[in-house]
Automatic annotation (TrEMBL):
GO molecular function: inorganic diphosphate phosphatase activity; metal ion binding; phosphatase activity
UniProt KW keywords: Cytoplasm, Hydrolase, Magnesium, Metal-binding, Nucleus
Gene3D superfamilies per the UniProt record, alphabetical: HAD superfamily/HAD-like (3.40.50.1000)
PROSITE patterns per record: STAS
Protein name: Haloacid dehalogenase-like hydrolase domain-containing protein 2
Reactions performed catalytically: diphosphate + H2O = 2 phosphate + H(+)
GO CC terms in record: cytoplasm; nucleus
EC supergroup of this enzyme: hydrolase
Length: 256
């Protein structure tokens, strides 16, 4: 393994608490010559705010090492020259270009924004999609739920699917498990076959990584809920570990 892609929320930390021995495990991984990239669907805060929070938790992470679905979505908006209506947090909005006041909204960008999920915003988004047949519904990600200190909380996926149902417009998912997202996140010059992903989401992290040929190591420290999958077919993983630290130990031991 030449490159390790690492999920953040639920893998390195849960809210403002590192997962067990995660800070020390990352330091051990840094002693190798493996390339490291942090890939996240976190959309409640800008990359700058996220980086500052991770530093406060004790993690040795450079801002440039973080590849966020916000970054991918912002790149997509600029590439297409869209003028979106945003349903994102005020902090996440900082990662996107300014709106044009001379043009009508031609797209919707939606992420995890608990304070923005009210009837007015959802209805405004519905109206834009309903009136403009060419308007795009851009989902930064479609997560069903995520892990918080108090337990599992609903993700943005249900709001995205609600808009799809009401308008008949199929969303474009930018973040994990999108293949474009994973391919863009890989360090330059390193193939997917020589890379691995460590994450807590069986679909977005593990299946997404394996779809492009990477190895996928699942951790149980975040949203992964074994009891909820008993009646479902889980995507195959190359290893299941209690937490990030155990996954790192496995990678280092098998690489030696």
């Amino acid at each position: 393994i030449e490159a390790v892609l690492i999920d953040l929320s639920g893998t390195l930390h849960v809210d403002d608490d590192p997962t067990p021995n995660a800070v020390e495990a990352l330091k051990k991984l840094r002693t190798t010559n493996k390339k490291i990239k942090f890939v996240t669907n976190t959309t409640k805060e800008s990359v700058s705010s996220l980086h500052k929070r991770l530093e406060k938790l004790g993690f040795d992470i450079q801002k440039e090492e973080i590849y966020s679905s916000l970054t991918a979505a912002s790149n997509y908006v600029q590439e297409k020259q869209f003028n979106p209506f945003y349903i994102v947090t005020d902090d996440a909005r900082k990662d996107f270009p300014a709106n044009s006041t001379d043009r009508q909204h031609d797209s919707i960008v939606i992420g995890l924004a608990p304070d923005k999920f009210d009837y007015k915003n959802i209805n405004d988004a519905f109206s834009i999609l309903h009136k403009n047949n060419e308007a795009q519904l851009i989902a930064i990600h479609e997560g069903k739920f995520y892990k918080t200190k108090s337990g599992i909380a609903v993700g943005p996926g249900c709001f995205v699917k609600g808009l799809e149902y009401s308008t008949g417009v199929k969303s474009i998912c930018i973040g994990k498990p999108n293949e474009y997202f994973f391919k863009s996140a890989l360090p330059s010059g390193i193939s997917a076959e020589n890379s691995c992903m460590i994450g807590d989401d069986p679909m977005d992290d593990i299946q997404g990584a394996r779809n492009i040929g990477m190895k996928g190591f699942l951790v149980e420290s975040g949203k992964y809920q074994p009891e909820q999958y008993k009646a479902k077919e889980l995507p195959a993983a190359d290893g299941i570990f209690k937490n990030f630290a155990e996954a790192v130990d496995f990678i280092l031991n098998t690489s030696s």
